[in-house]
Amino acid sequence: MRKDRLLRTTFVIVLGVLMTFATNAQDNWRLVYENDENGNAVKGSLDELIALIRSGEEVRISWGGQSPDDPIRKVEHFADAKFLTIMSDRTVQAQIDPITGQTPDFDDQSISFKENLEWSMIASSNGKTDRMMRNPITGEIASHQIRKAKVSWFVRR
Known about the structure:
Blueprint: H1 2-12, E1 29-35, E2 41-44, H2 46-54, E3 59-66, E4 74-80, E5 83-87, E6 91-95, E7 99-105, E8 110-124, E9 128-134, E10 141-148, E11 151-156
Antiparallel strand pairs: 1-2, 1-11, 3-4, 3-11, 5-6, 6-8, 7-8, 8-9, 9-10
């Protein structure tokens, strides 16, 4: 049961951290590429994304999920890419800053912090995401897993 809750929490953990920078006239983001959970192109151009990264553009990613049993339990996450890697000229990896863990309450539509839990992720244009939760006090790894995810890749205009 704890593992099930942990997986659910991982699913929605970054909700509320999203959109940390207010959008204004100078702060527009454009969807450049989107891959499905198997790494297939859904929208845009991976080559354009790679070229924009190489030219120094800022990147923001989006991912999310929905409970297969309850369509109300749906989240979308957005985070700035803090460390980007281009592998073999064909795969992009984006690491986000760790965030304080969160526990969602879908009935109340609220989120509360989880004490002593930090979460981070590396998203990939091949659909594989590496997710890790750890206790920042002890350093103990609470979970570490590779999961498939659809990822949208935005670049600041």
